[in-house]
Amino acid sequence: VIYNYIDKDLVIKKSNYNIKVEFDYNSINFLTVCRLVKQKAIDRFIRVHSKLIKQGLKHKVYIIGDGPEKENLQKLIKQENVEDTFILLGKKENPYPYIKNANYFCLLSEFEGYGMVIEEAKILNKPIIITDTAAREAVQNYENSIIVNNNEEGIYAEIKEVLQKKIKSFSNKQEKYDNSKI
Question: What is residue 16's DSSP assignment?
Fold first, then answer.
């Protein structure tokens, strides 16, 4: 398998651009970067988020991306009454400052390949939460990761645990990203 080349230095440089990131720094912030399509299961994430908010577990979720499911997701966000805590940011030309400033990067898809955005989150030393899909290969040796059961209950249980422990990050060990194999 030959993976796509990622310019580590460019990712780090772009993550430091002075872009206003609309996060609530008094809260734990989860971020996803994806196309808004059914396979990414953002609707499932909205329901999990809503349930946790109703239980008093304060946090915010930010989604970068656009796609055909946007309108349906906006309706579900409104229906679940989480407009202030589950935010669709739309497409961003430079998502790296957002990834850098989030407490957690999440990719909670129903199915997923080897996500390059996971590699970018690793370069920025973000704790990563993913569902058990083929993407688990990307975090096998990354100690700042949690692989959760690929269902609503599994996602709920793990995010609840993170919130109850008020964990803002895992290890400070910097990921040594290496393109030499590519």
Answer: T
Helices (H), 55-123: 70-79, 96-101, 116-123
* Band of pLDDT at residue 176, cut at 50, 70 and 90: low
- Mean pLDDT over residues 147-156, rounded? 95
pLDDT in tens, 36-54: 999 999 999 999 999 999 9
Query: Cβ distance 49 to 85 under 8 Å?
Result: yes
Where do we find the tokens 């290496």? 178
In whole angstroms, give the CA distance from residue 47 to residue 86. 10
Q: Give the closest residue to 128 by CA, choosing from 97, 167, 94.
A: 167
What type of residue is 153? E
Name the burial class of residue 21, with classes exposed (0-12), middle (13-18) and buried (19+) by CB atoms within 10 angstroms of its CB: middle
